[in-house]
Amino acid sequence: MESRSELVAGSLSGRRQKDRQKSRIANGSAWVNGVDGRSGWIRRLRELVRAHLSDLGGEENTSAAEHSIIRRAATLTVELERLEAKFAVAGEAFADDLETYQRCANTLRRLLEAIGLQRRPREVGPTLSDLLIEQQQRETNEVADG
């Protein structure tokens, strides 16, 4: 599966060449400028972005605007999870944190509604019925030609 980075023309190895005109974020080599991509926060962000992209039929089936919304939704999700952990450790939610949590949860809902809450099927090739119809047409043509 190709990402937004393009394959090198004529490359025998099929390795992706990074476009030097694009930022590290656009090239996919960084998720947040100046932040180590191995941190737990970034790993969780990547995990959520990939899950949302999969729900929308993959990166190749999403627009740049949808991708941007997905990234913001994933960021809010990570922060909501952090607040939930804080509530669990403290055994309660303080008013300021609870207000922040509520606003983030509502914003997350609106972002997710903007891209759709339903999974989109990914195009995986011909269906079984397509293959059977094609086979039947070939057999019909062979009998007519034969």
Describe this structure in words.
The structure is a single chain. It is built from 5 helices and no strands. It has 146 residues and is mainly alpha-helical. The protein has 2 domains: 1-30, no CATH class; 35-121. Mean pLDDT is 81; it is low at 1-15.
Number of helical stretches of at least 4 residues: 5
Residue-averaged pLDDT: 81
Structural class: mainly alpha
Helix content: 55-70%
Count the strands?
0
Q: How is the biggest beta sheet arranged?
A: none
The ordered H/E elements are HHHHH
Total count of domains: 2
Instruction: Report the portion of residues in β strands.
Output: under 5%
Question: Which residues sit in consecutive blocks of at least 5 with pLDDT less than 50?
Answer: 1-15
Rg from Cα:
23 Å
The global form is elongated
Distance between the termini: 41 Å
Pick out its properties.
146 residues, 0% strand, mainly alpha, 5 helices, disordered N terminus, 2 domains
Question: How is the topology of this model organized?
Answer:
Layout: H1 24-27, H2 40-55, H3 64-90, H4 95-115, H5 128-145
Helix pairs in contact: 2-3, 3-4
Describe, in short, the structure shown.
With 146 residues, the protein is mainly α.
